[in-house]
Sequence to fold (188 residues):
Amino acid sequence: MVPAAFVVVLDANVLFPLTLRDTMLRAAAAGFYQLRWSAEILDEMERNLVSTGTMSSDKAARLRATMERFFPEAEVTGYRSLVSVMRNDEKDRHVVAAAVKAGAQVITTSNLKDFSPLPEGIEAQSPDEFLCNLFDLDPDAFVSMLRGQATDLTRPPVTFDRLLERLARVVPDFVAAVLTKVAGSGSR
Fold:
């Protein structure tokens, strides 16, 4: 697959849920989109993983370091001067400023209400809408990627169906599209 030309900033709340984060990062690694984030976004992800008791601070720091190592091109810098001119919710203006600086077409967030208004040329999409759009680019490749994701999860082992059950909690329309594709191909 030729890497997608479009650039996407992931909000911290999309990087928080384990299975969703894994799927989003795998889709970027597979070339479905160009991933971007800022240190501030990763700070928020790390802070929230620790404050909710989801991970220890050491484990959250290792996760972040791994993400940064695998996606060195993802970090957006030099956007701070743009924050003050953004018109969306104040606490998320840094995300929009990073998107502007990165030339992003999409911000993926679970909190759409805080991302209006946006500068022209940038759209906020829920993770469900975003994954549906990515899936439409190459359904077969996406199903293959998801099967690989399930196979890679070994402690404990996770079946393809169990992976989809986990994803359905946060991205139900996407999972419905995957299930329709899989049923249509007869390869469950």
User: Anything to note?
Assistant: Residues 18 and 54 are 10 Å apart (CA to CA). The chain is about 55% helix and 10% strand. The radius of gyration is 16 Å. Residues 132-185 form one domain.
